[in-house]
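Internal ticket - ligand job 243, zinc ion:
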Amino acid sequence: MGSPLVAILSGAGISTDSGIPDYRGPNGLWRRNPEAEKLVTYEYYMGDPEIRRRSWQMRRQNRALQAEPNAAHRAVADLERTGVPVRVITQNVDGLHQLAGMPARKILELHGTARSFVCTTCHKRGPMEDAIARVEAGEDDPLCLDCGGILKSATVMFGERLDPAVLGEAVAITKACRVFIAVGSSLQVQPAAGLAGVAADHGARLIIVNAEPTPYDDRADEVVREPIGIALPTLLRTLGEES
Ligand code: ZN
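stdout (structure tokens):
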């Protein structure tokens, strides 16, 4: 008999130890700064070249692209290497699960990735470094080299829909898993919040690892408040030994 599927939903809190602040959450930097929020809002971005110029400067200075995975990201990859079936559903766009060694095919990025750019017209994608290099070389609003379309980060901006295929797969994994661990997520933003509810409805063992209380703590089998960098490795080692 195979080991039960473990689903790990990760939010901004898992990357705090890597020096990446919470941008997107209910109390995140963007929500507290309306001018910054415009830079990541689709309608403003597409309609205003000045917003795009400022967005590219923000991306150029974005330290998240230089960030390194931390003990929590490594613990997830380590669990996967023991042979336990693991899927990661992440709200983060930093790519740190992949850098820690978790296979990309086992990761669903609900909000896309800041490590790639995408053309808003022909949907061609490429490494973010390539677009940043063009900005550094003097193009303040680099356009698609294939079709001349507006380029953006491959993240889901405010005002954009989540990819329905990614979301559908996240729900399927959540329904199928036996253990669902929500780590570093406030569980106040959809779809993450809904997924925790789906996991509980389908009888998964729900474990919440977060510094602050979440609306799903009452439904959880286990709530862990210790720092993620210590708590998650311990928790996942125990799971690996149980499986
Ligand atoms: Zn294009």
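Auto-summary: The chain has a mean pLDDT of 93. The chain has nine helices and nine strands.
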